[in-house]
Amino acid sequence: xxxxxxxxxxxxxxxxxxxxxxxxxxxxxxxxxxxxxxxxxxxxxxxxxxxxxxxxxxxxxxxxxxxxxxxxxxxxxxxxxxxxxxxxxxxxxxxxxxxxxxxxxxxxxxxxxxxxxxxxxxxxxxxxxxxxxxxxxxxxxxxxxxxxxxxxxxxxxxxxxxxxxxxxxxxxxxxxxxxxxxxxxxxxxxxxxxxxxxxxxxxxxxxxxxxxxxxxxxxxxxxxxxxxxxxxxxxxxxxxxxxxxxxxxxxxxxxxxxxxxxxxxxxxxxxxxxxxxxxxxxxxxxxxxxxxxxxxxxxxxxxxxxxxxxxxxxxxxxxxxxxxxxxxxxxxxxxxxxxxxxxxxxxxxxxxxxxxxxxxxxxxxxxxxxxx
Length: 372
Fold this sequence. Notes:
This protein has 13 helices and 10 strands. It has helices spanning 45-49, 56-78, 97-114, 123-137, 178-188, 196-202, 228-241, 244-256, 262-267, 271-299, 314-322, 334-337, 342-354, and strands at 14-19, 24-31, 35-43, 87-93, 118-122, 146-151, 156-162, 166-172, 303-307, 329-330. Strands 3-2-1-4-5 form a 5-stranded mixed β-sheet, with helices on both faces. Helix 2 (56-78) packs parallel to helix 3 (97-114), helix 4 crosses helix 13 and helix 5 packs parallel to helix 7 (228-241). The longest helix is centred in the C-terminal third of the chain and has 29 residues, at 271-299. The protein is globular, with a radius of gyration of 21 Å.
């Protein structure tokens, strides 16, 4: 524990957040848990795109290259220096252990060198706080108990969030995360990585009822998710339709154009495939919202929080708003949906207020749970 809580101001507290759990190196400065003074993200999309997914060893190397300039840029944009900080917050799990170690080691070094408190943050809790802090800052705070649907490339969870930020796990995916299913289906069809935004961009051009997919029937916990069966159904449909030549044309487009535009993908995608994409996205959204609705009813939720990378999906946002949930639905701003450090600094603020600081034995935990 670098410093005692009483040695740091609580009003106007500026926390430097550092996030490196997967393939984005991020740093941000947030004041009093709500006011984002800066948020800098270095994406590794170009590095991993050629492999169709994140390569852990390459992710760690890219974090090593980016961590120092990203933190410096965050401080500069916030108009502050280390003397103006109250604490340093860092993601210590869950995520890729090598990637986590880069951010965690650098945060420890800064905390030690600058005599600043160190605060460890769960990445999933960060996604939840991206919404909570934004709602509080807008004057429309989240009501408790809240239901949090955290949905991204690595996570699909339902949590009950109680006053005092106490969490209870209600449901989770038993196989692929929703964002992972998007990316895998996109790769199967010859689209580039990440595939989720491409599918979201093309889906409105198709008929969401053209291909009938069956919703998953869960034995045991009815609030759990499963997307592997849907992914297999798409593969079966592709084989039945004999789409090999069409898929190869899209792969050739990738080889000739590093980052094809949505219009170029449109030109390379027949209507039948647009219908398939629309139907796939529609089914994923149904899976998410049906279980969210059931969970919200079970806990008598006063708010629904939707966060994580898939929360930026336009189809999901539109469907959630049209679903007429019995409670307000809160989404983060698009820039706070995907991995960022502002959410880490925001999640650290309540811990800062409590004096809940970490010592230098804090370790990276690839499978860190928020709640059992």
